[in-house]
Amino acid sequence: MAMAASDLGLLRSLALAGAGITSLPRLSVQDALDDGRLVHVLPSWVWPTTNLYLLHRGGRFVTPRVRAFIDHMRAALDLRGQRPPAP
């Protein structure tokens, strides 16, 4: 059986339930890899690199929620060695 889904949470849940294998961003499964709930089955295979863009309306005022998300993503990418450019 094969399944396609765009919901990363669903794919993660299915993998954790033992329903098969999936390809997910490391950020979304690192905790499960660390504690052994998931196993990296193709460690030598890597998805091609792509660009990630965070876009917002701009202007002088950025809501605290948007600023928190931007800061979180910058920190998460920095942890992976992907130093994003400063705003």
Report on the structure:
The chain folds into two domains: 48 residues, no CATH class; 37 residues, no CATH class. It has 87 residues and is mainly alpha-helical. The chain has three helices and no strands. It is elongated. The longest helix is centred in the last third of the chain and has 16 residues.
What's the structural blueprint in terms of helices and strands?
Blueprint (H helix, E strand, L loop, with lengths): L7 H9 L9 H9 L29 H16 L8
Q: Which structural category fits the helices and strands? A: mainly alpha
Global mean pLDDT? 85
Work out the count of structural domains: 2
Number of helices: 3
Distance between the termini: 45 Å
Helix content: 25-40%
- Sum up the overall morphology in one term: elongated
Beta-strand fraction estimate: under 5%
Tell me the major beta sheet: none
Rg, alpha carbons: 16 Å
Unreliable residue stretches: none
Total number of beta strands: 0
What is the H/E order?
HHH
